[in-house]
Amino acid sequence: HYDPMIAKLITWGEDRDTARRTMAQALAGLQVVGPSTNVDFLRRLMANPAFASADLDTGLIERERAALLPPPQPASDAELALAAAAVLANELDGPDPWSVHGGWRLGAPLQRRLVFTDGGGQREVILTYGKGGCTILPAAADGADSPMVFLPRPASPQAGDRRFNPQASAQCALQVGLQVGSERHEASAVFDHETLHLFTATRHLRLEYVDKLAHAGEAAQEGGRLTAPMPGKVIALLVRAGSTVSKGDPLLVMEAMKMEHTITAPTDGTVARLHYAVGDQVAEGEALVAIDQPPYAIDPPLDAPSD
């Protein structure tokens, strides 16, 4: 509650510049998950020309604000690929055939889409499984660029302890790497609940990654959903805009995989809009209905005067 310093890093050298360079190396290897730290700021400070030349006074940080306190930068394509590589590395093969994550498919290669969230909003990464590895291509990347190739490393004897558990924290670090042409990128990754901490050669990046399988069925447990569970066609509308619905009421019926799927209301409210008509084809995950929830009633205070 009083002193924000929980650790101190000290380096020394025969002269100031040697100590400064040693400090820069030590900070580059420092990886802290949990409390917020000023490690990235200190790394920029050690590399700052004014600090390196000992041109110091109390106005240094303000004068060098642009270099020392830059605005947060969204993840680069290489960092997104490293994040995807961390997800892949975390999907360790188990002892039975059903837990193998090699991605082999008969015919066309398997493709997956991973979605991460950072300061730049939602970011999508496309994975394509192939023989001996997996190519990773951020969805925003120029198609002319070389895809990034994930190079899996052999699992350690304790690899099973590293598997991502979205309900647990203090996961062990994963070492991941990928190849872009002749250039090699490496990082350490730690999953803390659904936050992925990525430690690269230049910074500590935090990305949100939601494992869809870990949340499978949650909408059903809540009593309904407003998105398409799979690609299909709308074959019946059971409500109209302005209809009042209760949690669990049927809203519409989709036909997919030769089966009928009834979409039910996840909450009480009023139907604000139906996004599709009967006969429309709908992609997986598309919003089907918009529902406005009623405002919560606020009881007057016990000592409020009565009319």
What is the topological layout?
Blueprint: H1 16-28, H2 39-47, H3 49-52, H4 60-63, H5 65-68, H6 77-90, E1 111-118, E2 121-130, E3 133-138, E4 148-150, E5 174-180, E6 183-192, E7 195-199, E8 204-209, H7 218-221, E9 232-237, E10 244-245, E11 250-256, E12 259-264, E13 269-274, E14 281-282, E15 289-292
Describe this structure in words.
The protein has helices at residues 16-28, 39-47, 49-52, 60-63, 65-68, 77-90, 218-221, and strands at residues 111-118, 121-130, 133-138, 148-150, 174-180, 183-192, 195-199, 204-209, 232-237, 244-245, 250-256, 259-264, 269-274, 281-282, 289-292. Helix content is 17%, strand content 29%. A hairpin with a 2-residue loop joins strand 6 and strand 7. The chain is built from 7 helices and 15 strands. The strands form 3 sheets. An 8-stranded antiparallel beta barrel has the order 1-2-3-4-5-6-7-8. Strands 12-11-9-14 form a 4-stranded antiparallel β-sheet, with no helix packed on it. It starts with 15 loop residues before the first helix and ends in a 15-residue tail after the last strand. Helix 1 runs antiparallel to helix 2. Mean pLDDT is 79; it is low at 141-145 and 152-170. The chain is elongated. With 307 residues, the chain is of the alpha+beta class.
